[in-house]
């Protein structure tokens, strides 16, 4: 299955923040939306970075509560691994596993087109396993 199929089911909405957004505001957004990452978008060149729960924890460990009053750009991951509509779910799973991250922004050219999380990948895989098991049960029942 391709990424485009997952986004067509899940939706393409992505929560973005500006590089100047305070980490405290980002943390509030993560909690309110029940998400694990936001894309940092400077409005000009598009994707500037990504700020994840893990980035926030590292910032707090290094700077204490003062990190909450600093901008997202201070702690965001700047080298963002992205995906595209034509990537397979297995390709994204490999990138996530090898890179040890859980969120991949999906690009359509230079435009941010969605976000795939490890939860989306696991859901897809579970649906696939259930479909295979169901087909196997049907096959056995008719044999």
Any chance you could write out the topology, listing elements then pairs?
Blueprint: H1 3-10, E1 16-17, H2 23-33, E2 37-41, E3 47-52, H3 53-63, E4 83-84, H4 89-99, E5 103-108, E6 111-117, H5 118-142
Parallel strand pairs: 1-2, 4-5
Antiparallel strand pairs: 2-3, 5-6
Describe the structure.
The protein is α/β, with parallel strands linked by helices. The protein has a single domain, classed as CBS-domain. It is 46% helix and 20% strand. The protein contains 5 helices and 6 strands. It has a 3-stranded mixed sheet. A 3-stranded mixed sheet has the order 4-5-6. The longest helix is centred in the last third of the chain and has 25 residues. The protein is elongated and about 65 Å long. The two termini are 29 Å apart. The mean pLDDT is 91.
